[in-house]
Write a structure and sequence with these properties.
The chain is of the alpha+beta class. It has one domain. It has helices at 49-53, 55-58; strands spanning 2-5, 14-15, 22-23, 29-32, 45-47. The strands form two sheets. A three-stranded antiparallel sheet has the order 1-4-5. 17% of the residues are buried.
Length: 65
């Protein structure tokens, strides 16, 4: 499952698994998680939009693999 978080709704700081940098509040980004039968919302991760688009060639950082 993938959802876009608009800047106005981005109220917390998250760490992007694509680059291991913080996503500051007020920055639009993407949140992704497995479907409920494969893990659900407890496994959701917040990604910078650019990192999400590049995930096929870069993958997550070692911290998240």
């Amino acid at each position: 499952m993938v959802r876009t978080v608009p800047a106005v709704q981005a109220t917390k700081v998250y760490r992007c698994p694509g680059c291991d940098h913080e996503i500051q509040s007020g920055i639009a980004h993407v949140v992704a998680w497995p479907e409920a039968e494969r893990g659900g919302v407890d496994e959701r991760r917040h990604w910078h939009t650019g990192c999400w688009k590049a995930r096929a060639r870069r993958g997550p950082t070692r911290r998240w693999s």
